[in-house]
Amino acid sequence: MRGPIPAGLVIDHLCRNRGCVNPGHLEPVTQQTNVLRGVGIAARRARQTHCVHGHPFTTSNTYVAPGGNRRCRTCRRAQSRRRGVSCAPA
């Protein structure tokens, strides 16, 4: 890659060496793509398709917490029932 970085994109180091500046090893991608290609905790969690109990992270079954973390609605309901808390709206 040579030239300016397109608006809205970041540079991904394809060789996974952050110090590498070989233009052939650099690719402009979205921040989301860059994170998903990574090996850190954020990348691993972003690639998860199911919660630890096997429930899918679908639009209807996923709660996004204020901090941005995804939570399984099925597991949250079960946890609330165990604690004696009602999830029904008032």
Salient structural properties:
two-stranded antiparallel sheet; 90 residues; 2 domains
Question: Using DSSP, what is the number of strands?
Answer: 4
Range of helix content? 25-40%
**Helix/strand class:** alpha+beta
- Percentage of residues in DSSP E strands: 15-25%
Low-confidence stretches are: none
Overview of the structural elements:
This protein has 90 residues and is of the alpha+beta class. The protein has two domains: 1-47, no CATH class; 48-83, no CATH class. The protein has three helices and four strands. It has a two-stranded antiparallel sheet with strand order 1-2. Strands 3-4 form a two-stranded antiparallel sheet. A hairpin with a 5-residue loop joins strand 3 and strand 4. The longest helix has 11 residues, at 73-83. It is elongated. The mean pLDDT is 88.
SSE blueprint:
Layout: E1 10-13, E2 26-29, H1 31-37, H2 41-47, E3 62-64, E4 70-72, H3 73-83
Give the gist of this structure.
With 90 residues, this protein is of the alpha+beta class.
